[in-house]
Amino acid sequence: MSNEFIALAVPAILLFSAIFTLLFGFSVHYTKSRGYFITLGTLFITFLISANGIGETFTLPVLPHIFNSMVVYDAFSATFISLFLLGGFLTLAIAKSFVDNTCFFTHESFVLLLFSLFGMVILTMANELLTAFIALEIASMSVYILVGLNRNSLRASEAFFKYLLLGSFAASFYLLGMVLIYASVKSTNLAVIAHYILSTNLKAQLLVIAGSMLIMITIMFKIAAVPFGAWVLDVYEGASFPITAYMAGVFKIAIFAFILRIFLQNFIAYESLYDPLIIGGAMVTLIAGSLLAVTQNSVKKMLAASSVVHSGYLLIAFASIGEATYSATSAIIFYLFAYFLSAIGAFGVLSYISKGSDKQINYDDLNGLAKSRPIIAASFTIFILSLAGFPSTIGFIAKFYIFTSAIEAGYAILAFFGALAACVSIYYYFKVIGHLYFKESGPVESLSGEKFSLIFIVITAIVVLWGGVGTSLLYDLPGINALNDLSRYAIGSLSL
Amino acid sequence: MSTLTILLFAPLLSAFLIFLITVLYSQTKQYVYTFLALMGSGLSALLALYVSYYSYFEKQVLVTHLFTWLNIGDFLIEVTLKADALSSFMLLFVAPVSFLIHVYATGYMNNDKSYGRFFAYFNLFVFFMLLLVLADNPIVMFIGWEGVGLVSYALIGFYYEDVKNTYAGNKAFIVNRVGDFGFLSALMLLFLSIPLGGFSFDNIFLGLWLIDSHRLTLIAFLLFVGAMGKSAQIPLFVWLPDAMAGPTPVSALIHAATMVTAGVYMVARFAPLYNMTPDILLLIAYVGAFSALFAAIIATRQYDIKKILAYSTMSQLGFMFMALGVGAYSTALFHMFTHAFFKALLFMAAGAIIVAYHHKQDIRELRGIRASGLFILMLIATLTITAIPPFSAFFSKDAIMSALYAGHIEIFAIAFVTSLLTAFYMFRMLFVLFFSKSEQRGQPTRKSMLYPMTPLTVLCIFAGLLNVPEIFSGNLSVSHWLHLADQSFFVPHTQEMLLMSLNTFFTLAVIVYTYKKYAYTDAIEFEKSDGMIANKFYIDALYTKTVVTVLEKLSYFFDKKISQLLIDGTINSMALVYLKVGNLFARAENGNVRFYALYMLIGLVSGFVYLYWSLRSFL
Question: Out of A177, A243, B7, B395, which could bridge B464 as a Cys pair, Cβ 3.0 to 4.6 Å?
Answer without folding.
Answer: B395
